[in-house]
């Protein structure tokens, strides 16, 4: 209530300063105040937006609409044109009354003189609003049905409709451009819509200042291709500063060797980063359980280096461990984007082989890197990454084989003590 009073006070002062008649201002404020008290709280509008909407409506009703056909009838305008033709009224008075420009007036006058009986100022649309091509509507419903089948499948990691994916699919597959609100509208009409539960607010920020300062590395185990019948692992590395995906590969089994191959691919192409950021998976870290009466511990946490970490030690790259799932949020979000679209595409393309799925994955992470504007950085990952490289703001070091190693095979390998 205090906010409404303060707002009305500011509106009153603004109108009086604009030399609006005091009586008109008083009536206007009273009308706005009544409507504010009666207006229902809208979930889609903030209180400020609701006030602006009410004030705008009152101004329109007080001063009249800018559209001629909403302020005057056909007969009223005809009467003015007749008087003007007989030189009974001057042009300036008509322009002030109708609130139109000279050009608009003479266009209407010409139209009136051509057909006085059939003259009308009513606006007629040449196209029907809110109608889309039947083929487009058919394709939207078809894709929404497929989405529903995916959501209902228990083993598939899909829980919600992805309308943005359908929008992209319609353009790529059918060459049909449709707005996102239109797709959501058709989903609501045909019962392909439900609200997502509200998630806890999460602060998204870039904690690094340079490419190569931190590379996040992780794997995800899901049924990426529903028709394949078996789950695969998605191994991914991402640069924290630019959000550029450096590596993305599907494998049938998660092994130390597969993660060493991921290191080899990233380091040979981009160089040595300052640090890697991983979870406490046994491939990345030796973690000893708590002491017990029945067990003697001969090795404590981090006293043994797994094979994967030995490779990073040989390359003089630091390893940082995430102590909670929330700490790995930045790599989880790209996972969700790629995983979501990978599953949907593999399902629609009837993919059963991991090599075919890898081709789809390659196209997805190219799109993510080169075309998608990241929600946190506000930039395309590749452009952000390359700009920093050109400005020589990078912590990636040139890859060099250091003694006692003679080739890359000596570094990226499984070692035996």
TrEMBL record:
Annotated PROSITE patterns: INTEGRASE (PS50994)
Annotated Pfam families: SRP54_N
Integrase catalytic domain segment(s): 207-389
GO MF, one annotated term: nucleic acid binding
Residue ranges that the Swiss-Prot or TrEMBL entry lists as coiled coil: none
GO biological-process terms attached to the record: DNA integration; SRP-dependent cotranslational protein targeting to membrane
Protein name stated in the entry: Integrase catalytic domain-containing protein
Organism in which the protein naturally occurs: marine sediment metagenome
Lineage of origin: unclassified sequences, metagenomes, ecological metagenomes
